[in-house]
Amino acid sequence: MRHYSIIIVHGLNGGTAKTFTHHSGNIWFQHLLPNHVVDIELKTNARIWVFGYNANVAFEHNAGKQTAFDYAGDLLELVFNVQKIVSLQ
User: Fold this and answer.
1) 79/66 Cα distance (integer angstroms)
2) Domain range holding 66?
3) ∠ CA 11-71-79 to the nearest 5 degrees?
């Protein structure tokens, strides 16, 4: 059985809600995307994962003092863990 995963990542100086919310109030990956990623044969849709991080990483007032490279490593670890989770199902 095949499963698809989509990982949503916002940009710098953004955030999940700030980046992906339409002026109507819809968060596109929550309210709209699931209806468009359906496998009709299997009657399943993709798993949607959201990767959140301190988007002020490029600025001096970054509270966590992590770099973009640190967040990239965190994202890669998330992807690895998602693959493990999906393979168990």
Assistant:
1) 19
2) 5-88
3) 95
Would you say the pTM of this structure is higher than 0.90?
Answer: no
Q: Would you say 66 and 59 are in contact if contact means Cβ atoms under 8 Å apart?
A: no
Say whether pLDDT at 81 is over 70. Answer: yes
Please say if the pLDDT value at position 33 is more than 60. yes
The band of 48, judged by pLDDT with boundaries at 50, 70 and 90, is confident
Overall number of domains in the chain: 1
DSSP code string of the chain:
----EEEEE--TT--HHHHHB-TTS-BIIIIIGGGGSEETTTTEE-EEEEE---TTTTSTT-TT---HHHHHHHHHHHHHHHHHHHHH-
Do the Cβ atoms of 51 and 8 come closer than 8 Å?
A: yes
85: left (phi over 0), alpha (psi -120 to 50) or beta: alpha
Measure the CA–CA gap between 32 and 73, rounded to whole angstroms.
29
